[in-house]
Design a protein that fits this description.
241 residues, Uracil-DNA Glycosylase, subunit E, alpha/beta, 18% strand, three-stranded antiparallel beta sheet, six-stranded mixed beta sheet, globular
Length: 241
């Protein structure tokens, strides 16, 4: 069994108003066996799409390589738009050396509920995946149950949106209203999720209108609705590329 420990601490700062919440990067980020094109930072896998999506939305001109400059670019962007990263899995065991969430066993979670108390500006959690087993929403629901905090459904469309009230003191059992935090379960920014995207009614409808649309284009549109600031980029089927 391979012990898969998260290689990065949460990227948090007091000005952040949103957190990106995922699970674990591929095991090679923990063992240090990075591939050409990987960036040694959160969501830095060359096979992942989060930074490609954000690059498209904001027109960042990011570097995709294992360099200090690539890391600096990403940290500077996150601070500028006040977004932190707080993945929910601290460690897990794996029988296979792959990045599958389903392959995680004996999972140890980071206590995001307690961490939220330390960052009072945060009002939105952006999950990089939904409520399927071992996804970020799945694990976050486990944390909420631990504290007896209900999760209220706001929208059942994709991406699903919920909200919860963070009590002034977790586990106190008091009934007063606390801070309201919204959760958004974005379509996972991974190649493995492309088949699921292709089956979505919303994607099929866009595909009929714009046959050249890709699953990446679909994510660019979806993510752009929930990330702050004024986007500069546009999907390729809209700008004539």
């Amino acid at each position: 069994m391979f012990f898969h420990s998260h290689p990065y601490p949460p990227f948090l700062f007091k000005e952040a108003t949103r957190w990106i919440v995922g699970t674990l990067p591929p095991p090679r980020f923990s063992t240090g066996d990075l591939k050409p094109g990987d960036v040694n930072f959160c969501y830095g896998s060359r096979d992942g799409q989060l930074w490609t999506i954000l690059d498209r939305i904001y027109g960042l001109g990011l570097t995709f390589e294992n360099s200090l400059e690539a890391i600096r670019q990403r940290k500077a962007f996150l601070r500028e738009v006040q977004i932190g990263i707080c993945d929910i899995v601290e460690s897990a065991y794996r029988e296979k050396m792959d990045a599958s969430d389903l392959g995680m066993q004996q999972v140890e979670l980071r206590d995001l509920i307690q961490t939220l108390y330390q960052y009072p500006q945060v009002h939105t959690l952006l999950f990089t995946g939904g409520n399927s087993k071992n996804g970020p929403e799945y694990f976050f629901r486990k944390l909420l149950r631990k504290y007896g905090i209900p999760l209220k459904r706001i929208s059942d469309d994709i991406p699903r949106i919920h909200e919860f009230q963070l009590p002034e003191k977790a586990g106190s059992g008091r009934s007063y209203r606390g801070r309201v935090i919204t959760t958004v379960s974005l379509t996972a920014p991974s190649g493995a999720a492309n088949r699921a995207v292709g089956s979505l009614k919303a994607y099929k409808a866009l595909k009929r209108e714009s046959p050249h649309i890709t699953t990446l284009d679909f994510r660019v549109l979806q993510y752009g609705k929930f990330f702050p600031g004024t986007p500069h980029g546009s999907p390729c089927w809209q700008d004539g590329h």
